[in-house]
Design a protein that fits this description.
Layout (H helix, E strand, L loop, with lengths): L9 E4 L2 H14 L7 H8 L2 H7 L10 H7 L10 H12 L4 E4 L3 H12 L10
């Protein structure tokens, strides 16, 4: 069994450009009743035009991970980008494990090895 810990914090990060592309694709294919502005515009615009339309929207285009890990609400004015990035890096350093979503199987194997657990045979969903 792995090390005894009072707590173990981990997170998976996703590539910000892939997140934006995924948001656009989701909007284009979303068939539900409650259509967001982002999804509605994705149905009308090309990807490039959609990105331009939402260029100043922190919830759609900006890297929300930096805001999240810097503990800065996107409802407020942004501090200087360098300060926000520095704070995010500082806060991420407190995690026991930081993985990358696009490399999930590798990250899951590394995490299991670190904790003394058996590695997954297939990629977790």
């Amino acid at each position: 069994m792995g090390p005894a810990l009072d707590r173990y914090s981990l997170t998976l990060l996703r590539h910000p450009i892939r997140t934006i592309m995924s948001t656009y694709e989701y909007g284009r294919t979303y068939m539900g009743q409650n259509l967001s502005v982002s999804a509605a515009m994705a149905k009308l615009l090309s990807f490039l035009d959609w990105v331009r339309y939402f260029a100043d929207s922190p919830l759609i285009i900006r890297n929300s991970f930096t805001h999240h890990f810097a503990a800065v609400s996107m409802d407020h004015c942004d501090p200087p980008a360098e300060l926000m990035l520095q704070n995010a890096k500082h806060n991420l350093a407190a995690f026991n494990f930081v993985g990358i979503a696009e490399q999930l199987l590798t990250c899951a194997s590394l995490l299991c090895e670190e904790l003394g657990w058996p590695s997954p045979a297939v990629e977790p969903h």
